[in-house]
Design goal:
115 residues; alpha+beta; Glutaredoxin; 4 helices
Length: 115
């Protein structure tokens, strides 16, 4: 089961974001499917999205690899209470840095590259 997500935070009028998207469009279809482009700002542009806030995203483009896991604790009644959590594993900021590390990132955290 895949437990990693690759998020790329972007903005509409960000030229480095557009350059990164053009680069990603040259990748194999299986690789493209592994990358989730998400907005840094809300639809109204008046603040960061909840995910961008949770991951402390300040600039675009920013690539963040997160590990999906369950965080469990025992409540006062002795019942187990589990919540999903996304834990940051790796971060690259800027189109050049993302492009430089993208192949290795896809290789390390996805099943897109067959053995």
């Amino acid at each position: 089961m895949k437990t990693y997500q690759i998020y790329v935070f972007t903005q509409d009028l960000c030229e480095p974001c557009q350059r990164l998207k053009r680069y990603v469009d040259t990748l194999a279809e299986d690789e493209i499917k592994e990358i989730k482009f998400v907005p840094m700002k809300t639809a109204y542009g008046n603040g960061r999205t909840a995910l961008a806030q949770d991951l402390n995203i300040e600039t675009t483009p920013t690539l963040v690899v997160v590990h999906e896991e369950l965080r469990c604790k025992i409540d006062a009644d002795g019942d187990e209470d589990c919540d999903p959590a996304e834990i940051e594993v790796e971060r690259f900021v800027g189109a050049n840095d993302i492009i430089e590390h993208l192949d290795a990132t896809i290789d390390a955290y996805t099943y897109a590259h067959p053995e």
